[in-house]
């Protein structure tokens, strides 16, 4: 029996997506030994596009819950060539974002969330899914490659664009 459960996001969980977006942005600072950014960084267009105006027909998200407390989230959105995300491939490939609270990392939560999200993408009829990963994030890269993601490009020097074929 796992110590967490996974469920689809609800309207009241959207603020947690913002928290997880901040975790994503902060993780690189932690790895590089830099100070954490102000939460104002979430209002930059490059980051805000991952959560702002949540609720489009193609938006999907799941959260992991431990003792009724959210501990991680994985979600995807469609972006366009005019408004691409960091892992943009094309207008018909949703892009994943995922974050787990530090205390719960490396315990299978991220893998479970990703598997659930990949199943949802298949159900929604997508043929591919993408993401962006810092090439220095060995744990994440290992997980993504294990789940069948392959590098298809580079964004901003050390961020790999990765894509998975959904079968």
Automatic annotation (TrEMBL):
<dbReference type="InterPro" id="IPR016181">
    <property type="entry name" value="Acyl_CoA_acyltransferase"/>
</dbReference>
<dbReference type="Pfam" id="PF00583">
    <property type="entry name" value="Acetyltransf_1"/>
</dbReference>
<dbReference type="GO" id="GO:0016747">
    <property type="term" value="F:acyltransferase activity, transferring groups other than amino-acyl groups"/>
</dbReference>
<feature type="domain" description="N-acetyltransferase">
    <location>
        <begin position="4"/>
        <end position="167"/>
    </location>
</feature>
<protein>
    <recommendedName>
        <fullName>N-acetyltransferase domain-containing protein</fullName>
    </recommendedName>
</protein>
<keyword id="KW-0012">Acyltransferase</keyword>
<dbReference type="InterPro" id="IPR050680">
    <property type="entry name" value="YpeA/RimI_acetyltransf"/>
</dbReference>
<dbReference type="InterPro" id="IPR000182">
    <property type="entry name" value="GNAT_dom"/>
</dbReference>
<keyword id="KW-0808">Transferase</keyword>
């Amino acid at each position: 029996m796992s110590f967490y459960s996974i469920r689809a996001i609800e309207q009241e969980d959207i603020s947690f997506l913002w928290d997880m977006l901040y975790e994503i942005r902060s993780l690189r600072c932690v790895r590089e030994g830099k100070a954490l950014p102000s939460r104002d960084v979430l209002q930059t267009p490059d980051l805000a596009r991952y959560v702002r105006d949540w609720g489009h027909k193609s938006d999907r998200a799941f959260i992991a819950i431990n003792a009724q407390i959210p501990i991680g989230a994985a979600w995807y959105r469609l972006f366009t060539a005019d408004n691409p995300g960091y892992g943009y491939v094309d207008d018909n490939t949703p892009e994943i974002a995922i974050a787990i609270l530090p205390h719960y990392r490396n315990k299978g939560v991220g893998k479970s969330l990703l598997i659930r999200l990949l199943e949802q993408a298949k159900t929604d009829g997508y043929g591919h899914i993408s993401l962006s990963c810092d090439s220095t994030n060995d744990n994440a890269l290992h997980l993504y490659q294990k789940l069948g993601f392959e590098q298809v490009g580079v964004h901003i020097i050390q961020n790999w664009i990765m894509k998975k074929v959904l079968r």
